[in-house]
Amino acid sequence: MHGKIFRLEGLAKQKVPLLHVVGQADTVVPVEENTDLLEKSYGSLGGSIKVIRKRDIQRKNQIEHIKTERDVMAHAEHPFVVRLYYSFTSADNLYMVMEFVNGGDLFSLLRNVGYLAEEVARLYVAEISLALEYLHHTLGVVHRDLKPDNVLI
Predict the structure, then answer these.
(1) How far is the C-alpha of 151 from the C-alpha of 133, rounded, in Å?
(2) Does residue 99 or residue 138 have the better pLDDT?
(3) Is it the case that residue 2 has pLDDT exceeding 50?
(4) 109 vs 29 pLDDT, higher one
(5) Label partner for 91 (CA 20 to 30 A): which of 6, 57, 59, 99?
(6) Which distant-in-sequence residues (6+ apart) come within 8 Å of 49 by Cβ?
């Protein structure tokens, strides 16, 4: 298992060099390589931090959904499933420190280019199919929110 689940009060207050915001729905912030947060267990990897407000999770009744997402990412060992390094909480937020996927999401790509060439679309469909097959057959998970926003490239 790659991911580690922690409740570390005060860790969020430590200085972690942040580069910029990547996502819109939740805040996903890439962190520089060699940060102490990631280097403790994984060496010079770099990653991103997904920041989710606890009040939003509660208001949207998403507590179990977020726990499942965290658990799946923590146990997944597949090249097309994002790795979770750590998760921790503060008084107001849940933080998920994960592998940084530099290509952004499929929705943004489609918005920028309009459509994909057939060979590129085949590649993405094949990778998504392999990831879903792994989640379903190996981890017993059915992904119920598959959409371009949730596909990182």
Answers:
(1) 15
(2) 138
(3) no
(4) 109
(5) 99
(6) 16, 18, 27, 28, 29, 31, 95, 96, 97, 98
Task: Report, as residue numbers or ranges, the catalytic residues.
Answer: 145
- The verdict on pTM exceeding 0.85 is no
pLDDT tens-digit series, residues 38-86 = 444 444 456 788 888 899 999 999 999 999 999 999 999 999 999 999 8
Token pair listed for 98: 């994960």
Query: Do 139 and 72 form a contact (C-beta atoms < 8 A)?
Result: yes
Q: Looking at residue 50, what is its pLDDT?
A: 86
Instruction: Return the number of other C-beta atoms located less than 10 Å from residue 86's C-beta.
Output: 22
> Phi/psi zone of residue 21: left (φ > 0), alpha (ψ -120 to 50 degrees), beta?
beta
Instruction: Please state the three-class secondary structure of the chain as a single string.
Output: CCCEECCCCCHHHCCCCECCCCCCCCEEEEECCCCHHHHHHHCCCCEEEEEEEHHHHHHCCCHHHHHHHHHHHHHCCCCCCCCEEEEEECCCEEEEEECCCCCCEHHHHHHHHCCCCHHHHHHHHHHHHHHHHHHHHHCCCCCCCCCHHHCEC
Q: Is the pLDDT of residue 7 over 50?
A: no
